[in-house]
Amino acid sequence: MVEAGCSGNIDFLHDAIRGDGTILQKLHSLGTTNTPLHLASMFGHAEFVIEYISLSSISAYQLSQLNQDGYSPLHLASTNDHLEIVQFLLEFGKHKSALEELYAAKEVTVHQESVLHLVVKHHQQEVLVFLMDQKLGLSVQNLLNRGDREGNTIMHLATAEKQL
């Protein structure tokens, strides 16, 4: 399944589920590890992400599950400028009433970085604009004002990197 997530191999995903209908739930119960969803989000395999989520009946908690490095699928897609996946994860979250969980100020990496910290740090302006346009009210305000482990807000990071 790891290789399927890395390569975006949807056929292998279907074969694995035919062999064991509970395999995706088992993968998510392993704890802080890269799931195929993390890997597909990181490598930009949007079709795989969509199919994986539709086949797995993934919960809001599992959607925002952090890997061993403290990154959720949303963090990984945002960091790597995979806008289609970011949009899908957020839209899916809305339908699952999980958007606040995905976007909550507590949803940070081990370095206390929010998804906004990551997109600024990795110069992903298009993703940042999309995230800011989601009109998430107080959640966005909390993320804008939240400092990372060193106390830097996204404005500090943008200023330090001379990002307009």
Automatic annotation (TrEMBL):
Transmembrane regions: none
GO CC annotations, alphabetized: plasma membrane
Positions annotated as ANK repeat: 69-101
Record's keyword terms, sorted: ANK repeat, Repeat
Keyword Zinc-finger tagged: no
Protein name: Ankyrin repeat-containing protein
